[in-house]
Write a structure and sequence with these properties.
The protein is of the alpha/beta class. The chain has a domain of 268 residues: Rossmann fold (3-Layer(aba) Sandwich), CATH 3.40.50.720. The strands form 5 sheets. Strands 11-10-9-12-13-14-17 form a 7-stranded mixed β-sheet, with helices on both faces. It has a 5-stranded parallel β-sheet with strand order 4-6-5-7-8, sandwiched between helices. The longest helix has 21 residues.
C-alpha cells in the first residue's frame, strides 16, 4: 500500500450482538505525515483513509475472540474454506476444514452450482436462507454476483411463498419475536440484542406482499427487507434487527394448522394493539436510541395511522406508503421530463386506494406542493383516487380510511354519482398519469387507455399491482393501444415492447432502488426525523439517474444492477437535506460533495473477507 508507512492502528470496539466479540480494528493516517501531503497527491485510497476511523468503516482487520467450531458456526466471522493458513493456525481450525484454501470467488462458483441444482424457486429461497446463517459474506457476495437472476428468489414473489410456508420450512430462529400477550417483557426481550443497532424493520404481518394476513411468518419479510438494505445500500448486517409483532391472525388456514408457530388466536385490535405498538416503539428507542424504524406490511387501517402517529417524533418510515410513493414519483418525474409536462400542472388518476395507492398519491401531492409552493390541499386536488366504490367522494364518510380522506372529492364536483367508474373518470379528468395499485387484473382496458391517449401526447401508464398476474394491463397492450406513445412502468419486471420497429424498455417500479438509499442517508446522518423534504430530495436523486433522460426509449428508472451506486446518490441527497433542515445529529458531516460521497462509501458494508485478529487488551 502506497502510504502504509503512515498508518497506525486505532481500535474501535463494537459488540457483535450474537457473539459478544469486538469488531473491528480501524486505521487512520498518522497526523504528522498527513499534514505534509498535498491534496493533489492524495490517491483515492488515501482519501478513503481519512474516514477510516468511523465506526462503520469497512477496512482493516476484525477482532474475533472465537475459535474452532464456535468460529465456524458464527455467520458473521465464518469464512469456511477461505480461511487462510495463518488464521487456521491462530484460531485452531486445522482438522476442521478441508486443506485447500479457496478464494471468495471460488466459493461463489461452488455455491451458485449448488443453488442452480435446486428444483424450484422456493427450494432456492430455502437454500439461500441456510447459506445466510452459515456465512453472511458468501451469501451477499453470491446475490451481488447474480443479482438480476436471484432478486425474485430472495424477495418477491418467492419470499411470499416462503412466508406462507414459514411454519413448515422453519429451521432456525432469526430476529426478534414479540407477542401481544407478553407486553410487559418487550423491553427485557429487546435488551438481549447487543451492540449498536442502526436499522429495525418491524411488521405485524397483516398485509404481506399481496397475500394478506400471515401472522408470525411476517418475520421473514422483516428479514428480507433488511437483506435488501445490506445488498442495495451497504447497511451493516450486524447492525440490523428484524422484528415481528405477533398479535394473532385472522387467517383461517393458519389458525387450523397444527404446525403454525405463532399465536393461535384472532388478531387483537383496538386499545390493546395500540399499547403493544407503543411499548415496542418506546422500548426500541430506549435500547437503540439512534435506530431508524421501518414499518412493513401493516394493515390498511393501521399503516398510515401509525406512520402519522410516530413520524413527528422519531425517525421512521413505511415502505408500503412512502417507499412505493417515492419510487413511483421518481418514475413520474422522469416521464414528465420526457413528455414536457410540468409537475405543477400534472393530472393524476390513482386506481386502487389502499396503503400503496394513497402512499403514491400523498408523495405526489407533497412533491407538487414543494415544487409549486401550493398548499398540500391544493396539490391534492390534482389527484383523483378510485377504490372499490369508484371515485372517492366526501359523501362516503366513515367508509373512507384516514389515508383516503385528503383525496376524497367534493360531491358537487361530481354530480352524476352513477359515473364514478374508471373510464368515466378518465374521460372527465383527461389525466397525464394513470397509476394502478388495485390488484384487479385487466382493469386498464383498451377503452380506458385509448380514451386517455386521445387527450395527452405521451400517456404515462403505471400498472403496478403485484404479482404479474394481478397487473392492471400488460405493457405490450398499453404500447399497442397508444401507438407506441405511452411511457410505462410496472410493479414487476417485463421484457421490452415494440411498435413499428421501435423498441421501448419497460421500467420496473422497484422499491429497492429507493428505500435502502433513504435508510442509509438517515442512518449515517442520524437524522432526528425523516421529513417530506428529505423524501423529495431522495425522489429527485433517483429520477436524476433515469436512463430515459438521455434516451426516451430507455426505461424511466435505472436497473436494479446499479442499485448500490444509486443508493449513494440518494443517501447524499437525504443527508444534505437533513443538514439543511437542522435534522442531522451526526457530527462532522463533510460539506464538500466529493468528500461526502467518499464518507458515505467508506461506511457501506461490502461482502468481502477481512483479516481476523485476536482482541487486544485495552
Amino acid at each position: 500500500m502506497r502510504f502504509a508507512a503512515a498508518l497506525r492502528p486505532s481500535v474501535v470496539r463494537l459488540a457483535d450482538r450474537q457473539s459478544r466479540t469486538f469488531v473491528p480494528a480501524r486505521y487512520t493516517l498518522d497526523s504528522k505525515k498527513q499534514r505534509i501531503r498535498t491534496a493533489a497527491s492524495m490517491s483515492k485510497e488515501a482519501t478513503a483513509s481519512k474516514f477510516g476511523h468511523l465506526p462503520r468503516a469497512t477496512t482493516g482487520p476484525i477482532e474475533c475472540s472465537l475459535e474452532g467450531t464456535g468460529l465456524l458456526h458464527n455467520s458473521y466471522f465464518n469464512k469456511g474454506s477461505a480461511f487462510p493458513p495463518e488464521e487456521r493456525r491462530e484460531f485452531k481450525l486445522h482438522g476442521l476444514l478441508p486443506p485447500n484454501v479457496q478464494t471468495l470467488d471460488e466459493q461463489v462458483t461452488r455455491a451458485y452450482q449448488q443453488y442452480s441444482s435446486r428444483p424450484d424457486d422456493l427450494a432456492k429461497n430455502t437454500f439461500m436462507n441456510s447459506m445466510k446463517v452459515q456465512s453472511e459474506v458468501l451469501y451477499y457476495k453470491l446475490i451481488q454476483t447474480h443479482i438480476k437472476e436471484m432478486f425474485s428468489v430472495i424477495y418477491t414473489p418467492t419470499e411470499g411463498d416462503a412466508i406462507q410456508n414459514f411454519s413448515r420450512i422453519f429451521r432456525r430462529p432469526e430476529g426478534c419475536y414479540l407477542n401481544i400477550g407478553d407486553q410487559d417483557q418487550v423491553d427485557e426481550i429487546l435488551s438481549r440484542f447487543q451492540g449498536d443497532i442502526d436499522y429495525i424493520v418491524v411488521s405485524d404481518g397483516e398485509e404481506i406482499l399481496g397475500i394478506g394476513d400471515q401472522g408470525v411468518g411476517a418475520i421473514l419479510i422483516s428479514i428480507a427487507k433488511l437483506v435488501l438494505t445490506t445488498l442495495c445500500a451497504g447497511i451493516h448486517p450486524s447492525r440490523q434487527l428484524p422484528v415481528v409483532l405477533d398479535c394473532g391472525t385472522d387467517n383461517e388456514d393458519l389458525l387450523n394448522d397444527e404446525l403454525y408457530l405463532g399465536l393461535r388466536q384472532r388478531r387483537v385490535r383496538g386499545k390493546e394493539y395500540d399499547q403493544f405498538v407503543d411499548k415496542f416503539v418506546e422500548s426500541a428507542r430506549n435500547r437503540f436510541p439512534h435506530a431508524y424504524i421501518h414499518f412493513e406490511d401493516f394493515g390498511l387501517h393501521n399503516a398510515k395511522r401509525l406512520l402519522d402517529k410516530y413520524r413527528p417524533h422519531i425517525s421512521c418510515f413505511n415502505d408500503d406508503i412512502q417507499g412505493t410513493g417515492c419510487v413511483t414519483l421518481a418514475a413520474i418525474m422522469a416521464a414528465l421530463h420526457v413528455s414536457k409536462v410540468d409537475l405543477k400542472d400534472v393530472r393524476v388518476v390513482v386506481f386502487g386506494s389502499g396503503s400503496a395507492g394513497t402512499g403514491v398519491a400523498a408523495q405526489i401531492a407533497d412533491a407538487i406542493a414543494t415544487e409549486s409552493k401550493k398548499s398540500k390541499e391544493e396539490a391534492s386536488k390534482q389527484i383523483w383516487c378510485l377504490d372499490k366504490p369508484g371515485l372517492l367522494l366526501k359523501s362516503h364518510g366513515d367508509k373512507l380510511t384516514q389515508a383516503q380522506v385528503p383525496f376524497a372529492r367534493d360531491d358537487s364536483e361530481w354530480p352524476d354519482k352513477e359515473k364514478t367508474d374508471l373510464l368515466s373518470v378518465v374521460k372527465t379528468v383527461k389525466p397525464h398519469v394513470l397509476i394502478g395499485t388495485s390488484t384487479k387484473p385487466g382493469a386498464f382496458t383498451e377503452d380506458v387507455i385509448r380514451e386517455m391517449a386521445k387527450h395527452v401526447d405521451r400517456p404515462i401508464v403505471f400498472p403496478l399491482s403485484n404479482p404479474t398476474r394481478l397487473h392492471e394491463a400488460q405493457p405490450k397492450d398499453i404500447n399497442d393501444w397508444t401507438e407506441g406513445r405511452a411511457l410505462i412502468a410496472t410493479g414487476s419486471p417485463f421484457p421490452p415492447v415494440e411498435y413499428n420497429g421501435t423498441k421501448y424498455e419497460v421500467a420496473e417500479c422497484n422499491n429497492s432502488t429507493c428505500f435502502p438509499g433513504i435508510g442509509l442517508g438517515v442512518v449515517l446522518s442520524r437524522a432526528r426525523l425523516l421529513s417530506d423534504k428529505m423524501l423529495v430530495a431522495a425522489v429527485k436523486a433517483l429520477a436524476a439517474q433515469s436512463p430515459a433522460l438521455q434516451d426516451p426509449n430507455q426505461p424511466l428508472l435505472p436497473d436494479i444492477v446499479h442499485v448500490r451506486e444509486i443508493s449513494v446518490h440518494i443517501a447524499k441527497a437525504v443527508i444534505q437535506s437533513a443538514v439543511a433542515e437542522g435534522l442531522a445529529q451526526e457530527k462532522d458531516i463533510p460539506q464538500d460533495e466529493a468528500d461526502l460521497e467518499e464518507w458515505i462509501r467508506v461506511q457501506m458494508w461490502e461482502p468481502k473477507y477481512r483479516p481476523l485478529v485476536r482482541p487486544r487488551n485495552i
